[in-house]
Specification:
With 270 residues, this protein is of the alpha/beta class. 31% of the residues lie in helices and 25% in strands. It contains six helices and nine strands. Bound molecules: hypoxanthine (HPA). Keywords: Glycosyltransferase, Transferase.
C-alpha cells in the first residue's frame, strides 16, 4: 500500500494540493459547505491514481483543495461506502492520502437515524463515541503495522477539546446539538424493528452507514477527529413507518445551515 499511497500523493502534489492543515469529509447535510470554500484546485476521484473508483465504478466525487476561514483545507466531496461494493481499505484510502498531504485534523459529517427518541429529526448530534458494526476493521490487513500501530488505541477516538468547542459554538448560535454514540452498519437496507431495538439496547443513540471506518484510520494515523451527524429519521421500533428517502433528504437539507455554521465557526478556532 505504501507504494500506491506515494503515487497518489505525488499526483496531488503536482496538481498543487500543498500543505493542507485540515481534512473535511462532506457527507449528507454538509454538501453546501463547498460554496463557502475558495477553491484552488480540484481532482475527480476517477482521475486520481489508485483511488478506489478505478477498480469499481464511476464515482462523481471530487477531492477539493482550497481556503476556508483562512485555513488551507482538503475536502472530500462525496465519500465511499462499503454498501457500494468497496472494501474497508478502499473506503479509508483517502484519509491516508489526506494525512500524507499534511492534515493534522479531520472533520466529518454524515446522516443518521435517531435511536435515542429524545432526539428529533432535523436536529444535530455530535459523535462522542462509536460502535463498529461493519463486520471487520479497516486495519485488518497484512502490513498495517508499516503505516501505524496495529493495536490502535480507541479509548478516546473523538477529540474532547474540539467537541467542547463545537458545543459552545452551538450554544452561542442557538443550535440544538445533542451528544451521543453513533453505530455504523453496512446497509444499504435500513434496519428492522428488531435491529433498532438491539441498537438501543447496546447503547447507540444514532445509526448510519459511514464514518466509523474513516475515524478508525484517522486514529491509526493519530489525527485529531470530530464528527457531526444530522438526524434524518426517528427509529422508533414500536411506531416504525416505511422509509421515505425524500423525507430523509429534506430533513438533512433543513439542518444544513446549522451544520455549516458549526463547521465554519469551529474552523476559525483551529
Ligand atoms: N439507519 C441507517 N442509516 C441511516 C438511517 C437509519 O435509520 N437514517 C439515515 N441513515
Amino acid at each position: 500500500m505504501i507504494k500506491y499511497i506515494e503515487e497518489t500523493v505525488n499526483y496531488l502534489l503536482e496538481k498543487g494540493f500543498e500543505n493542507p492543515e485540515l481534512g473535511i469529509i462532506l457527507g449528507t447535510g454538509l454538501g453546501q459547505l463547498i460554496n463557502e470554500i475558495e477553491i484552488i484546485k480540484e481532482a475527480s476521484y476517477n482521475h486520481i491514481p489508485n483511488f478506489p473508483t478505478a477498480t469499481v465504478e464511476f464515482h462523481k466525487g471530487k477531492l477539493i483543495y482550497g481556503i476556508l476561514e483562512g485555513k488551507k483545507v482538503v475536502v472530500m466531496q462525496g465519500r465511499f461506502h462499503v454498501y457500494e461494493g468497496y472494501t474497508l481499505q478502499d473506503v479509508t484510502y483517502p484519509v491516508r492520502i489526506m494525512e500524507k498531504l499534511g492534515i493534522k485534523a479531520l472533520l466529518v459529517s454524515n446522516a443518521a437515524g435517531a435511536i435515542n427518541l429524545n432526539f428529533k429529526k432535523g436536529e444535530l448530534m455530535l459523535i462522542d463515541d462509536h460502535i463498529n458494526l461493519q463486520g471487520s476493521s479497516p486495519l485488518a490487513f497484512r502490513g498495517v503495522e508499516l503505516l501505524g500501530e496495529r493495536f490502535t488505541d480507541m479509548s478516546m477516538p473523538y477529540d474532547e477539546e474540539t467537541n467542547r468547542t463545537f458545543q459552545s459554538i452551538a450554544k452561542k448560535n442557538n443550535i440544538v446539538l445533542h451528544k451521543g454514540v453513533y453505530a455504523s452498519v453496512v446497509g444499504p437496507q435500513l434496519e428492522t424493528r428488531a435491529e433498532y431495538r438491539m441498537l438501543k439496547l447496546i447503547g447507540a443513540d444514532a445509526v448510519g452507514m459511514s464514518t466509523v471506518p474513516e475515524i478508525i484510520v484517522a486514529n491509526h494515523l493519530k489525527l485529531k477527529v470530530a464528527a457531526v451527524s444530522v438526524l434524518t429519521d426517528e427509529c422508533d421500533p414500536d411506531n416504525l413507518e416505511p422509509i421515505n428517502i425524500e423525507d430523509i433528504i429534506a430533513n438533512a437539507s433543513k439542518a444544513e445551515p446549522d451544520m455549516i455554521t458549526l463547521f465554519k465557526e469551529l474552523i476559525k478556532t483551529l
